[in-house]
Design goal:
- It is built from nine helices and ten strands.
- The protein is of the alpha/beta class and 251 residues long.
- It has a single domain, classed as TIM Barrel.
- The strands form three sheets. Strands 1, 4, 5, 6, 7 and 10 form a six-stranded parallel β-sheet that branches. A two-stranded parallel sheet has the order 2-3.
- Helix 2 packs parallel to helix 4 and helix 6 (150-168) packs across helix 7 (184-192).
- Bound molecules: zinc ion.
């Protein structure tokens, strides 16, 4: 499977380069954890993360906020970096590396877990906010939204906004669907309770026609070599990921 994935993406990658298709839209990266003490499918090592940020920096990429993206300020040389769940290593390990390159990120917090062991503290959030980081909601308890009744969905989507606004002492304008799962009802609720936009895990870049409530992201995996990362940035994995999501019947 890994070999197939690699060769398929190579064909697309070299094809794209051959055609010299300029990348349209702004890519948004999705990370969870960055550290060197854990090895699992959510954790990218600090070495890999630093190499990836260095590559982006050397290529002339600049990070922009979600607000700027939605205001149409993004272009092919901009990038949005996101972290899901709000793990403490985002502050301890990723933040220093991001700062080194003058990058900022958007962190989607699971409201109930904040200020608990392994997750961001109020102080971490304050410090990162002062450096231009954004904080969004990733629900209260990270449920599978599709399995919840409407009132529970509302509580997770709206309740988390209020909790995180209390914690960050700031407006929380963005939402991110846990597991990348959404249905019509969840999307409608996210709009209704006042979020300005929401991230999915649908692959691709975000161009002028982007759906503000189903923004596309590119997931970075711990197994990605720097070459894989470059291919992902060029969109070479998008088709493959769309196919995989379809096979898993997952949006
Ligand atoms: Zn999550």
């Amino acid at each position: 499977m890994k070999a197939l994935r690699s060769s398929l993406s190579s064909v697309v990658y070299h094809g794209t380069r051959l055609l010299d298709r300029k990348q349209k839209g702004t890519r948004m990266l999705c990370y969870h954890r960055v550290n060197d003490s854990e090895k699992n499918y959510l954790t990218v090592s600090t070495r890999h993360f630093r190499d990836q940020m260095k590559f982006l920096f050397n290529e002339g990429y600049q990070t922009i906020s979600l607000s700027s993206l939605l205001a149409g300020e993004g272009n092919g040389r901009n990038i949005v970096i996101t972290f899901d769940d709000g793990f403490r290593d985002n502050f301890e390990c990723a933040y220093p590396i991001l700062k080194e390159f003058g990058f900022r990120a958007t962190i989607f917090c699971v409201a109930d877990r904040m200020n608990t062991e392994g997750y961001l503290t109020r102080q971490d959030i304050q410090e990162m906010r002062a450096s231009g980081f954004e904080f969004g909601s990733h629900t209260i308890s990270h449920p599978h939204l599709l399995r919840l009744k409407a009132d529970k969905k509302w509580q997770e989507i709206f309740g988390s906004k209020k909790m995180l606004e209390d914690l960050t002492q700031n407006r929380v304008d963005f939402f991110c669907y846990p597991y990348g799962e959404y249905d019509k009802e969840s999307v409608a609720l996210v709009k209704k309770v006042g979020y300005l936009g929401a991230c999915s895990n649908n692959p691709g870049a975000n161009d002028g026609k982007m759906d503000h409530y189903l923004l596309k992201r590119t997931e970075v995996s711990p197994d990605d070599s720097l070459n894989d990362f470059k291919k992902k940035m060029a969109g070479a994995f998008d088709l493959l990921h769309r196919g995989l999501h379809w096979v898993r019947r997952r949006p």
